[in-house]
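can u do me a favor
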């Protein structure tokens, strides 16, 4: 009985972590990736913003799907954290050069 309860709590924690990875991690990674692409694309600024805003929907869907397709909750967090961290670097460098 106790093992069932512990297994259920672990499953609830796993699903909760995946929901947070999809919602918060996916949103933050999408925001950073969209901003970085807006800076890095060799297009006029208005076109780059328009293009990345349209692509942001696809990026977010990928992060949400990944959060629930990953084998573990830890790997569900890995993609948004890696992409968000790498995408934040150009934004940070651009802010420092202004």
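np, heres the sequence
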């Amino acid at each position: 009985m106790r093992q069932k309860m512990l297994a259920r709590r672990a499953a609830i924690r796993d699903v909760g972590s995946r929901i947070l990875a999809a919602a918060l991690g996916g949103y933050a990674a999408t925001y950073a990736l969209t901003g970085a692409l807006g800076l890095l694309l060799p297009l006029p600024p208005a076109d780059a913003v328009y293009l990345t805003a349209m692509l942001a929907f696809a990026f977010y869907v990928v992060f949400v799907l990944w959060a629930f397709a990953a084998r573990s909750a830890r790997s569900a967090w890995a993609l948004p954290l890696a992409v968000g961290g790498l995408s934040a670097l150009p934004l940070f460098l651009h802010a420092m050069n202004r």
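DSSP finds three helices and no strands in the chain. hope that helps!!
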